[in-house]
Structure formats: C-alpha cells, structure tokens
C-alpha cells in the first residue's frame, strides 16, 4: 500500500496532462500512487494516457466539476496521505521527499509549500537544485498567520494532507463552482496547525488562455467574491471570540468583501442589496478603505448610478 496518493483531476487537457504525470513519475520519493480522474473529457485525453495506464489508476466519470473529480480520487485513494496536482501543473522532482521528511520530523497532518507561477509556453526547469538545509521552513500553530498573508497564502496543489483528516472534514464542497479549495483550507485552519516550506516545489500554470476543469469559472470575478464572502462569513461565525486577534482579522476581511459586494450590487442596480451589504460592512470595523467604499454606496448612490449609466452608454 503506497504512502501518498497523488490525485490529478483533468478535463480536456490532453495537451498537458502527461507533463503533470511525468513530473510525478520522476519524483525522488517513490512510495506513491497516481490517480487520474477524467471528468468527462471530450478531447483525446484517453488516447494520450494509454501509454501510462500501467503507471496510473485511471478513472473516467461524467462531467461533474473539479470538486467531484477530486472527491472521486479521494475515495479511490489507498495512501495514508493525499496530494493534489492540476493536470497542467508540475511538481519539482524533490517535492514529495522534502514534504514527507518535514511532516514526519514535526508530526504534522498538513503541509504546504511555495509555488512558482509560469505561463504554459514558458520554458522552465522543474529539476532545479534545492539545498534542503537552506530552505526556510516553519510550523504555524496559528494557520491564519499563513492564510492571511498574501505572499504565503497556501495553494491546494502544494498541499499534502493526512487522508483521514481530509475525510473527516467532508472533503470538497461539490456545490461550489469556485473557491472550493479556499473553503477547505479555512476549515482546516480552525482546528489544525500547518507546516510550510517556503520554496517553490510546485510549478503552477496561469496561462491567459487556460480553460477547463479547475479554471472554468475563474473569469467570473464577482462569483469568486460571492463564494469568498460566504467562506469568510462562515469562518467569522465559527472562530472562537476568545482568539480576539484572528477574530478581528477575519472581521476586517469580511468588511472588505462586504464593501466590494455593496459596490458591485450598486453598479448592477440592486440598491436595496447594496445598502444592506454596506451597512454590514460598517459593522465589521474594518480597514478605512472598506469604510470609505461602504459610505460611498450609502451616501452617493446617485454617483455610482451615474458611472454605471456612462459605462452602459459607451
């Protein structure tokens, strides 16, 4: 039975999926299995994967979305640990070895790493050398110190997590079209300590033309903000008030997203909803920019409406 199960969800990524698989097959850590969940691809994904069938566990299912594909992979996994990799991203050759060593050394259940963001056409070397002794590592007893830092905010493709913990959390919310990984990570942060290796052991593609499973809704920024608002609101309700520092930090972020939603709703002409969001934002006692945005919606809606009409008439 393998120690680590690497789950690769894919949808119409025939051009790139073998690159992701190859980055796992060249790992210096070898106690793993690869589970590729094909979420109803209509391109030639099955054909390009045929030479790999003896090296992977391939699962085909009807199109249900990335969360369902990941959950299918989790159910099929036999490893004690789970790692995720999008089908156009790559692992550094030492990723699993470095993370598993760090996990065992500190008795962790979750570990993240840094990322290297590239364009898919960019020529890059996923085998760059790493001095493990010089690599900055840290255990966050308070994971919100990691999550709320824009520079270190953890990304799902960098994570290794104990399978039993992931299952106890209910895995991924299949009703969410975006930000499902953010919801999971925030939920974990309420109860677990996070390990973090501040080195780019995962290479993430962010091509402008990227489309498919994991990014099918990424162009809808307003939808992402709505889901993020939902996640923050849930975290705000669940976080212990005795932890006043994190309570205030989440409260401030919630105020920020509420003020953004207030402005969005005002621009859409939903003035009742806009006022409601603006009032809620003011109650969060957040950053002055959130106050300013909320007051702008409450006191000068006519100006927002004027700008909206100008944009519509262009």
Summarize, please:
The protein is an alpha/beta fold and 314 residues long. Helix content is 44%, strand content 17%.
Provide structural commentary:
This protein is α/β, with parallel strands linked by helices and 314 residues long. Helix content is 44%, strand content 17%. Strands 1, 2, 3, 4, 5, 6, 7, 8 and 9 form a nine-stranded mixed beta sheet that branches. α7 packs parallel to α8 (221-238) and α10 packs antiparallel against α11. The longest helix has 24 residues, at 244-267. The model is unreliable at 208-219 (pLDDT under 50).
Strand content: 15-25%
CATH H-level superfamily of the largest domain: Spore Coat Polysaccharide Biosynthesis Protein SpsA, Chain A
Rg for CA atoms: 21 Å
CATH-defined fold name of the largest domain: Spore Coat Polysaccharide Biosynthesis Protein SpsA, Chain A
Helix count, DSSP H or I runs of 4 or more residues? 12
Count of β-strands: 9
Written as H for each helix and E for each strand, in order along the chain, the element string is EHEHEHEEHEEHEHHEHHHHH
Percentage of residues in helical conformation: 40-55%
